[in-house]
Amino acid sequence: MLDLLTGVHGLEVVLAVVAISLALRTYFAKQNSDKLPPGPPLLPILGSALAVDISAPWLTYKAWGSQYGDVVYTRLFGQDNIIINSEQVARDLLEHRSQNYSDRPEIATNELFGIDYTTAFMRYGSRWRLQRKIVHQSFRQDAIPHFQPMQVTKSYDLLLNLMEDPSDYHEHFEAHSGSIIMSAVYSYDAARRHDHMIERATMGLDIILKEMRPEVAAIFSAYPFLLRLPSWLPGMRLKRISPLAKQLSLENLENPFAYTERGLATGSISPCMVAEHLAELDDSYDNFAWQKKAIKESAATAFGAGTETTASVLLNFTLLMILHPDIQQKAQKLVDSVVGPKRLPTFHDRPSLPYIDAIIRECMRWRPVFPLAIMHATVESDIYQGYYIPKGVRASSHPGVHVHSQHRAMCHNEDKYPNPSEFNPDRFLNADGTLTDDTVSFVWGFGRRICPGRHLAEASIWSAMVCMLAVFNFSRAKDETGKEIEIEPHWHGGLTVRPKSFPCSITPRNADMDITALQHLIGVSV
After folding, report:
1. pLDDT, tens digit, for every residue of 380-407?
2. pTM score
3. DSSP character string of 324-344
4. Domain chopping of the chain, boundaries
5. CATH code of the region 107-371+406-525
6. Model pLDDT for residues 346-371, shown as the tens digit of each residue
7. Continuous segment of H or E residues that includes residue 88
8. CA-based, 20 to 30 A from 202: which of 2, 179, 398, 455?
9. Strand 401-405 to 498-499 pairing
């Protein structure tokens, strides 16, 4: 009987402790919720979802920033979100407190699309750190000159493609971007046009980036049971398209890596990211398989990130040169004055052409490719300026809190960039024509999650832009009556943003320039 009573009293004590613990947790949650950043009114279940422009949520978030401040709290369905609209706040949190803000939230759709292996979406930990180290070592700033001859060659290939078929400029930009990354990462020399491996990889990338909208992912992260519903139900487009996306993601992971492995075995491969890191492995190590897998996964991540960024900026550039012929002509005259008519530009000319770098910065600022970046998550709860920022990843019953770095708001900060909707490269030039210190580096991310391939991407963009300016004029297309067709820009929405295809005319600046003359000019330039 004494043992029974003791057991009963012990159970009572345990229940009492649990009850007190739950009461305290409820109390502190209530206290902390009172200190959350301000934000829009929330409806039951939906939160503020009805107020968000799904096609361009960054515009809604920027408007909320003007109303509620640089740090905004909102909820989309069951997903809590912290929106950072200020570059200074982003640096305070994502850089100065990077040990707490370098995590990623659990996104239910990552596995569905077969991209849960990618470094960009990976949770903060030893696996991520190893992948990050691999990419950083290969593409750190002092390693970029090694890639420049290849980048110039690929820029010349782009000129040939545009000369042969200017109407397919969209596909040419993707082929150009993909071929550079494939060469740098895998030592794969892609066909100048219609390369099968690049076309498959860009097809998968296109599907994923269009479908992985943060607002859509929020629904499935908050209610993961939806992913178990049959694909034929209305609203389950993700389930219908995900098998193809997953297959393409797997191809992008395995096939280029296998190509490099075969080349290493036969001695036919040139130095590249994968080859160099594989050569450093020792198969006698216990973690050999783990490290090899990290090389494979980080390589596939590098392809996706590098291809999308470069191609999107080049599309922005083409659109802007058409809309601003005065800026195009100014840039062309500067290129002519430095390079002359008997050769094409190379990286040796870059220090003499700061205006081209100013155009690049303004292209990236005017329409950032990642307007909301990829979500961050806090490792632990935090307090900033008196506001409570909850822990990023909680129990399985709650999706945690997503922290969004609102790049579009930062790029269109009226105090830093007057008339932000205006395209004006001069804002990045000093009075003496030299470049300002503002590199718009925040468009590449913050802290430990900043894009490690940004130096390679910037160099690729510069080379392509300056070569296109040297050879081509970009202008409005004309209809059958000879009247110019007005351009009304429209944008692909998703995780990234790029212009939809628009009618344009891409013609040689020199009337005598044809494919043969261009090939000769390339021959004397290399």
Report:
1. 999 999 999 988 765 444 557 889 999 9
2. 0.89
3. -HHHHHHHHHHHHHHH-SSS-
4. 107-371+406-525
5. 1.10.630.10
6. 999 999 999 999 999 999 999 999 99
7. helix 87-90
8. 455
9. unpaired
